[in-house]
Amino acid sequence: MKRHLLWTFDRGSFQWDILCLLILGFLFLIPRNAFQDVPEFMKVSATETVKKTVDKNGNAIFTVRLKEPCFFDTDNTRQESADLLGHTLGKPVSVTRFQPIRDHWTGRLIAYAIWKEK
Length: 118
What we know:
Layout lengths: L1 H5 L7 H16 L20 E5 L5 E11 L4 H15 L5 E8 L6 E8 L2
Antiparallel strand pairs: 1-2, 2-4, 3-4
């Protein structure tokens, strides 16, 4: 048992090969969503169009879901999401940063994380 815990096997041994196969199997066979290691502002709600979160520095981050998913991050889609955020907040928004949020299966753009000026 001590040999297994301290892993004293040689690099070309049978035990080494088994460990490498287990590590590769873990990396490639476990689905991505099993880890749930996505920041809160990257999680897109199916029911909410705009979701507000706060980062560790106290900055407000708004997650704005697009009306229709698309493949390209363009100025038009950014402007559309900023307008939707402004409409939801009831006042014009001055955006400091956009971060596209994509569906991890299809790669389509589904939302933006928007940092607005204070």
